What we know:
The chain is an alpha+beta fold. 47% of the residues lie in helices and 16% in strands. The chain has helices at 8-73, 87-97, 112-116, 124-131, 153-158, 166-173; strands spanning 74-76, 178-181, 185-190, 196-206, 209-220. The chain has a 5-stranded antiparallel β-sheet. The protein is rod-shaped, with a radius of gyration of 40 Å. The protein starts with 7 loop residues before the first helix and ends with a strand. 20% of the residues are buried.
Amino acid sequence: MQRKPFKKSHRARNIVIAVLVVILVVFTIFAIVGHNQQSAHKNEQGKSTVTSKTKHAKSKITQSKSSSSTTSASESTSVAEAPVTASSAVSSAISIVTNDATQTPITDNTTVESSASTPSSHTNSEATSSSQIQQPDSSSSSASPASFGNWSASTYNAVAIGTVTYDEVRATYGNPTYLTASDQVYAIWQSTSGAKVSIVFTPTGDANNLKLVASSKSQSGLQ
């Protein structure tokens, strides 16, 4: 028995279905590709954000280190100034110290090498004189003295601003080279090579217990 060919209506229906299937497949492919591209774009954005944050964090660390190194050479703190009722005591305390300055730069410390090369046949008077010279800092170099008198980078760092007084600093490190005063005392210890330590002392306390307390300090030339 011979089979009849498909009816025209069936053939049209099949063509429509085939076209819809093709359209659906194409749409699916475009959807998948678009999703992948969007994911890749998000990943790139994420990487860019992480890189930016990392660079920003490194920049902050660098700035922090730079700030720390600057602070080590110059520091200050708030010190409560003496009240007006103690003005006469302040004037008296400042006038007492104004004549302490030597006006003579402090000799740079000698180096280990130069002291080792000193002949042992010096006279007793020369030996006595040399014994009065401050012992050299182990980090000193003959080309550029690392310290002078009793001052070095470590002793400078040991001066606690906000607590140490002028009398204590003077007793430990000697008289300042230069000193000026107004409502505060500005003292400078300077070496013959130009290295120096500057400290500002602020009068604090009352008329019965007045102190000149270090409120800021700075140094240059110390290694």
